[in-house]
Amino acid sequence: MMSRLRLLPSLLGAQAARLLATPRVQVSSCRRRSSEPPAASPGSRGGGVSSYMEEMYFAWLEDPQSVHKIRGHHVAQLDPLGILDADLDSFVPSDLITTIDKLAFYDLRESDLDKEFQLPTTTFIGGSESTLSLREIIRRLESTYCQHVGLEFMFINDAEQCQWIRQKFETPGVMRFSSEEKRTLLARLVRSMRFEDFLARKWSSEKRFGLEGCEVMIPALKTIIDKSSEMGIENVILGMPHRGRLNVLANVIRKDLEQIFCQFDPKLEAADEGSGDVKYHLGMYHERINRVTNRNIALSLVANPSHLEAVDPVVQGKTKAEQFYRGDAQGRKVMSILVHGDAAFAGQGVVYETFHLSDLPSYTTNGTVHVVVNNQIGFTTDPRMARSSPYPTDVARVVNAPIFHVNADDPEAVIYVCSVAAEWRNTFNKDVVVDLVCYRRRGHNEMDEPMFTQPLMYKQIHRQVPVLKKYADKLIAEGTVTLQEFEEEIAKYDRICEEAYGRSKDKKILHIKHWLDSPWPGFFNVDGEPKSMTCPATGVPEDVLTHIGGVASSVPLEDFTIHTGLSRILRGRADMTRKRTADWALAEYMAFGSLLKEGIHVRLSGQDVERGTFSHRHHVLHDQEVDRRTCVPMNHLWPDQAPYTVCNSSLSEYGVLGFELGYAMASPNALVLWEAQFGDFHNTAQCIIDQFVSTGQAKWVRHNGIVLLLPHGMEGMGPEHSSARPERFLQMSNDDSDAYPVFSKDFEVSQLYDCNWIVANCSTPASYFHVLRRQILLPFRKPLIIFTPKSLLRHPDAKSSFDQMVSGTSFQRVIPEDGAAARAPGQVRRLIFCTGKVYYDLVKERSGRGLEEQVAITRLEQISPFPFDLIKQEAERYPGAELVWCQEEHKNMGYYDYISPRFMTILGRTRPIWYVGRDPAAAPATGNRNTHLVSLKKFLDTAFNLQAFEGKTF
Questions:
Q1: Which SMART domains match (predicted)?
Q2: Which long-range contacts (CB under 8 A, 24 or more apart) does 22-30 make?
Q3: DSSP summary character for residue 693
Q4: Which residues contact 736 (CB under 8 A, 6 or more apart)?
Q5: β 830-834/882-890 pair status
Q6: Closest residue by Cα to residue 154 from 70, 60, 73
Q7: How far apart are CA 487 and CA 578, in angstroms?
Q8: What's the CA gap between 184 and 182, in Å, rounded?
Q9: What is the DSSP letter of 266?
């Protein structure tokens, strides 16, 4: 009786509970004083206790906040070990507990539970039956909400979606599987477990971050893919941490086993460029037939470092791009699956950032299936010390994603839940979370000793029967398979592994390129031959520039009212176009527009990029009279142009930069740019920069053409937002400061091919125009870091003539002196090298001192890879001049530590390169305007004091 009645009050819900809270008659002890039952209510079937019970029951049925649906998951049997509370709370609410005394208090007897009730249309527990006894109602609700599946969905503010979930789980018999389905599930469990066992036998002392304790994840992922394929999905992009990655590669992506096994051989050396990465970080792309649906499916597992959730936005960006290029606006063909660890899912802020991209128009991927491998531990940290929320999955509630908790030792429950999750995603195009509550049979890795920190937990784990044996015993007992069939399945897969192990000894098979997660077919070759390692001129015909200028200065839509201040900006653009000049904003317009004409998709993303942080861009015009009516003139340039996407992002750097990096990963024929609101905001995206942008090609042979636009410049506005920290990017550049280069006719392109990224600080709109176009015209892809200006956006001298952008012109890595000093180089006493905005301060100061013939100023537009050849030419051009590097940044920041040793190398240490700039400091700029001006005057004085370095040695 106790087992059946344990959750009776959970039927009552809030409204019925209020009825029970006010007794209708006085009571003493556990019996009513009156011998008469409560009066019958009008219209009830009968009187007394039955009518009172009926009233409470219908109050519960009418209450949409039924306690079973809301909190049944709190008492569900989710932990396979049976020792922990999956929700970090051992307290069970009183409305989920009953006792004999409480039943007696209300004079309810076991016989009352056999009363029959008409079921309302809002519940599905009856199936084809319209009436059920109260006893059966309790049993079915407990079976649905309080067993091996715990459902969280009643917070969703959409009645249709809640009813959909209820139907999927409340309908009787939904978790019944055919014999064939059970045999398939068993076979998948065999592959999952025996793969881990094989690796443990062959490489017992190697880290592999195995899946032991959550082997069911393999059939879980395969079920999601099968169901999605059945619903029309053709491309699935996965992201996951390192635990279980090798198993996923082998049994989900179907990577050749010998390619995996050869990664364990320390004697084999990769034949590719780059440093490579550990095997459990690598990615993969594979197209194959889905055997369940007999349809083609493309699977991509994105490479990921040990920064566990860093891959989340990358996967989303890649998915969005694949959807965009396929014209799959609703996500019917391409989808993403993200696998998480429980501690990381709760602890990493990028998870929250990524969830908040899920429904933004320019970032949505139309729903992601999230699978949480809930080890109930993070490295060595107990969940109670790792999070403050009841579940690790609570972050998903912010986007109304349903959360399905499931005991990972119940394979059939897992498979059903995953099937529903896939159907949810492809029905409602919204995120969904599957929480696989499992355990980690070994320590954090195979070399770790978990008994140090979780002794009781691991005593239970050592006693735990593996899920494969439990499920096999179940199927054998029910006659679905025989013991012999089970053993043959194991022997069959073991034989496959042994044969692959033998092939893995071949030294010819170890190639990092076999692990590409984003191959670009045809990009690196033309008609089967490698592309020429040259870069064509980046200029365009003048009529193209003029046409773009005309559109940039107009409103293509009729009856569209723009702001009066914007009218002045457009008139200014039209005036510049007539005068054949361009400022920074117009040059960017022309770079983008000319690429769109050539069929190159351009995507610009970041905080406030539509208008521009400094109100200079205005790529999206807003009608001042009609709410939310906008116009993007860039999409009205040419009849058959490529599309232009410009989108303000959420207030996120880590998540959004990761997203754009993933977007750029999908295709080489797109210019993808992320602009920081201010350059120093890249600090909060440093993980993406360090782990993906800087090192992606070296670790994963992954070319990527992402462009980072980082506003930079000392304007006397304080330490925040002044510096984009160029020293950090330069310090991570891989060109050798001590290696004297071999110059050739293709030196520029070969340098770019060998570098890990390009770092530039353009001083003219023309340079900016060319470097953006060069990014696409190069025969390969490299990340491009551009320190963009603030004050130069409107500086009267920071304009470029069309002559510097027309056909035949190209990006100048170094812009030499072209004034009086260049005409008499032998008379020049000082040659100042600089980059970016400080050039204009130097020119103004030189003019004021009348030193145009004695001081030459040369600009580095590209800083890394270092233009050794052009610097050598410039230095030799002025043989009698002192060489000075001048920067506005402090000495321990900026560029000096990068350029100084390279100057020494190219000059054979025969001439010093003197530093002029601000003294070393902790903060990147002063917060006092007067102090800023004093320090500026001081270093300009030094720059033009021609006796400043006399008598000094280097």
A1: Transket_pyr
A2: 24/52, 27/105, 30/101, 30/104, 30/105
A3: I
A4: none
A5: parallel
A6: 70
A7: 82
A8: 5
A9: T
134: its two tokens? 């109260």
pLDDT band, residue 47 (cuts 50/70/90): very low
Tell me the one-letter amino acid at 902.
R
Assigned token pair, 549: 């200028």
E-strand ranges in 499-558 read 525-526, 529-530
Give CA–CA dist 717/720, Å, rounded: 8
Cβ contacts of residue 546 below 8 Å, gap of 6+? 577, 802
**Cβ partners under 8 Å of residue 837, min gap 6:** 713, 714, 763, 789, 791, 792, 888
Contact of 286 with 254, CB cutoff 8 Å: yes
Nearest Cα to Cα of residue 629 among 564, 558, 677, 691: 558
Domains and CATH numbers, the chain: 2-170 (no CATH), 179-515 (3.40.50.970), 542-712+761-804 (3.40.50.12470), 817-943 (3.40.50.11610)
Distance CA 325, CA 30 (A): 71
Q: Are strands 814-815 and 830-834 parallel, antiparallel or unpaired?
A: unpaired
Convert 751-778 to b/e letters by CB count within 10 Å (16 or more is b): bbeebbbbbbbbbbbbbbbbbbbbbbbb
Q: Which residues contact residue 363 at a Cβ distance below 8 angstroms, ignoring those fewer than 6 apart?
A: 316, 320, 357, 647, 649, 650, 656, 659
What digits encode the pLDDT tens for the residues 780-806? 999 999 999 999 999 999 999 999 999
Given a cut of 90, is residue 510 above it in pLDDT? no
pLDDT band (50, 70, 90) for residue 512: low
Say which amino acid occupies 864: S
